[in-house]
Hints:
Order of helices and strands: HHEHHEEEEEEEEEE
Number of domains: 2
Number of helices: 4
CATH topology of the largest domain: Immunoglobulin-like
Strand content: 35-45%
Amino acid sequence: xxxxVLKMKFMxxxxxxxxxxxxxxxxxxxxxxxxxxxxxxxxxxxxxxxxPEQHKIDRLCELKDLDHKSSSQNAPLKDFExxxxxxxxxxxxxxxxxxxxxxxxxxISYKLDFFESTITRDPKEEQSFRVRVKDDGNxxxxxxxxKINFSIYELGSDPKSFKIDPKLCANN
Length: 172
C-alpha cells in the first residue's frame, strides 16, 4: 500500500523503481580483488622470550591487509578479520623491522573447503604463501578460522616457531 502511494508521487515509474533499488539493494563496499595479509613481528622482543603465552605472542604481532585495517593491542589477533573475494587470491607475507632478525611463514593451517587447492609458496616471493578462494556462493558471509605458523630467527641462531589464528570472511 505504501509503495502505491509513493508510486503515485512519481510520474515516471522507472524512476520509482530505480529509487527502490538504490535504497533497498545492498551495495558492495569493497571491490572484488586479490587480498594481501601482512604479518609484522617484533622479532627481537619475541625471540628473547622463553615459552611465551599466546597473548604475549599476539601482542608482538600485527596483521594488516589491503583494506588498511590493522590489528591492535586492544583486540586479540584471533579477532582480526580480512575480507577475501570468491575466485580471487589471498596472499600472506611476513616482515620485521628488527635488524639481524628474520621472520618466515612456515605454513598456513586451514580446511580445504574454503580454497581451490593447497596453499603454496609464491614462486616470485619466497616469503609469501598464496591460494585462490573457491568460487562458491555458499561461502559468502562465512567466517573462516585458520592459523599462520611462522618461525623467527636471530641471524646465526636456531629458529623459534609460533602460531596465530586470525579469520577470513568471504565476499563477492
